Amino acid sequence: MRTLKEGSVGKAFVRLVETKTGYAGLVEIGSKRKTFQDQNKDRLWETLQREAAKANPYFVGYDGAHARFLRIFPDGFMSQVYLGDGEGGERNYKLKAKSRLEDKLPLQKARQATNAGEEIAGIYQATNLLSPFEKMRVRDALRGPKADDFIRAAAEFTCGDRRRSLAEMERALKPYEAAKWTVVTDLPFLWRPDMHMFLKPTVTQKFAARVGHPFQHQYSTALEIAVYESLLDLTAETRSKLSTLAPRDNIDIQSFIWVVGEYTREDEEGLVSAPAMRELRPTK
Predict the structure, then answer these.
(1) Residue 36 needs a FRET pair 20 to 30 A away by CA distance; which of 115, 136, 207, 271 works?
(2) What residue numbers bound the domain in which 275 lies?
(3) Judgement on whether residues 80 and 159 belong to the same structural domain of the protein
């Protein structure tokens, strides 16, 4: 046998080896060992990572995540509090930001953006997806000489040219210390919530740990396309697991990730009212 990959995934040790008949894998957590076999080494490595992810103490699986969401919003994505414009609402304010973005700068127009920085700055200010500190940094970037470079790159990223346009967004934002996942995924998410996902790193890692997805270990602060691809894999898997809740788009999926990953035990048990919920939670 020849070892192809090995390493730690959280508290677990994983090893992938090549055998005479295919590939074998080991997941070791403390004194417990589990072995796996597959003819496809990439698929087996993914299996090993997912099995190792279950060792996280916060793991509840998708059934647990589903139950947690419904304890807070019993009518799921149709709950009036979930939809509402008031405190505790998770969807309508994002739809309003999306509508404003489409009015100010539709996607196809953004691909040739000129002097659009101030208009886009207002879009970032319209939601709580970014922290106040991040909003200040992106505002400075959108008032700078590379504002249109960033906006055009964000539009190209949305349309499918992800690797090159991600690097272009980073170059435009880096002088302002604004080259963050929150900033580069916000506009694509609002333009095309059927395809793209907003990445709030800490809560998304928490969610991935709860459902056992490798994103919890694959995440990096570096703006690398592999990180975003892992996020999209988590998004697609979550959408598939939530078919009974009928999510409309990735706005619902992002909200589900936020609720499962960030809501407190008090929120779950209904010990605080909906108007107080957002006051107890940090900005998304």
Answers:
(1) 207
(2) 58-284
(3) yes
